[in-house]
Design brief:
This protein is an alpha/beta fold. 44% of the residues lie in helices and 14% in strands. It has a six-stranded mixed β-sheet with strand order 1-2-3-4-6-5, sandwiched between helices. It is globular and about 70 Å long. InterPro entries: RpnA.
């Protein structure tokens, strides 16, 4: 197999690219194997076909933020595993994991007529290309314990696992080390399944149609992120205008403040329009 990352294919779409990750993890054999590496204590014997890019919406609460799960997996005991790839450190990983778990609970874990004891166990797994905890570890695992007596477990059925692909590999097993190396676009020589994964990655990168699809997908994500940032700025301006008015500022004073804070992003006419809308 020719694992040619550079310079022939630019950019190289590796394991941690959303579309590549979803394609690879939709293979039940690969997905089960990766889950066993990340969460060996789960002792998974069988999984149902994984769902990739599963969108979780709440039509009854339109203002709530929807989530799109990279890969959602169910094992033979009906426990759920959400596998996500995170490539940018926004300082909100813990909050993000909490929200994903809540949306999964809302949608999948407790049918009508069942009791809380019927809730499924949920494991949220984030494979990160950065160290969110700044401790240098490859694998972080979190559950709910009593603060003083760690042996006193709450048993809420939720586990959170972070794989830091930039962590120190001292003391970790060969399979987890291979997974980390794969995420860092390093060639892995370990077993048949890693060979299978790498062949899929090479095949996708060598397919012009698939590369175009990935590029289009990433472009849309960037556009959506930019739209979200702009909307956030606009909401911030509206809140600032309302606060200044509450303090009795005149329109001239408000406009002057807006020009100081946002004059490099919006024209004077646009800022006046914001004031009219507020």
């Amino acid at each position: 197999m020719n694992w040619n990352i550079t310079p022939n294919k630019q950019p190289w779409y590796g394991f941690t690219e959303d579309q590549i990750f979803g394609e690879i993890m939709s293979d039940p054999e690969i997905c089960k194997y990766i889950l066993r590496i990340i969460a060996p204590e789960a002792k998974i014997k069988h999984i149902y076909p994984p769902n990739k890019q599963r969108e979780v919406k709440d039509p009854g609460h339109r203002k709530q933020k929807d989530v799109r799960l990279d890969v959602l997996v169910e094992d033979e005991k009906h426990n759920l595993y959400d596998l996500e790839v995170q490539t940018s450190d926004k300082g909100d990983l813990g909050w993000r994991m909490r929200y994903y778990a809540s949306k999964i609970d809302q949608r999948y874990t407790l049918p009508v007529g069942k009791t809380y004891r019927d809730l499924r166990k949920v494991t949220i797994i984030f494979i990160c290309t950065f160290d969110p905890q700044k401790k240098g570890k490859v694998r972080y695992e979190y559950e709910s314990f009593e603060k003083v007596d760690k042996s006193d477990q709450l048993n809420d059925g939720i586990k959170k696992i972070i794989i830091n692909t930039k962590g120190k590999q001292d003391g970790i097993g060969p399979e987890l080390a291979a997974l980390v190396n794969l995420a860092n676009n390093k060639q892995v020589h370990l077993n048949r399944i890693f060979d299978k994964i790498q062949k899929k990655i090479v095949d996708i990168n060598n397919d012009p149609k698939r590369r175009d699809e990935i590029m289009d997908y990433e472009t849309k994500l960037l556009e959506r992120e930019q739209d979200g940032k702009e909307e956030g700025i606009r909401q911030g301006i509206q809140k600032l205008i309302a606060a200044l008015r509450d303090f009795g500022a005149t329109n001239a004073q408000i406009l002057k403040r807006l020009e100081q804070d946002y004059g490099d992003q919006f024209t004077k006419k646009e800022l006046k329009d914001f004031m009219k809308q507020a």
